[in-house]
Amino acid sequence: MAKEKGADGKECWDGYRYGGTENGKDKCIKVHEMNVCNECAVAMLEDIKAGKFTDVITEADYHGRKVPLGKPMRGDIKKFKVYVKNPDGNVVKVNFGHGGTSAKRAGQKTMRIRKSNPARRKSFRARHNCDTPGPRTKARYWSCRNW
User: Fold this and answer.
1) Using CA atoms, how far apart are residues 85 and 81, in angstroms rounded to an integer?
2) pTM, whole model, 2 decimals?
3) Separation of alpha carbons 76 and 60, rounded Å
4) Distance of CA 97 to CAs 6, 9, 131, Å?
């Protein structure tokens, strides 16, 4: 088999094309596999735009009203809230953060989020064990994700 030069001048075998480097070595990709992947990706994007995927849920009913799933927002009880589905398939509201308006009403100080300060960020993440944040239905998961 002869080697074939790609558009960037790198040589690969017949039926393969140059695909960059991996671990310091040149990588060749099968041409027909690459084309199939590109065709699949284009078809999938068209299906998403046409609304054919019904298993991707972005909103659900929570106590009789539509709520967005997995999108943190300003809270009513705590500083933030987010709606998620638990493993049983029920939509639950997860409140997280310090105080918010409920703390103001109780006469407590509300805390400012200072995640732009590297020392505070590091301390928060260590204190809350953010390397293993747990399930999405817990406040720690969402607090760690914000920090």
Assistant:
1) 13
2) 0.55
3) 19
4) 54, 55, 18
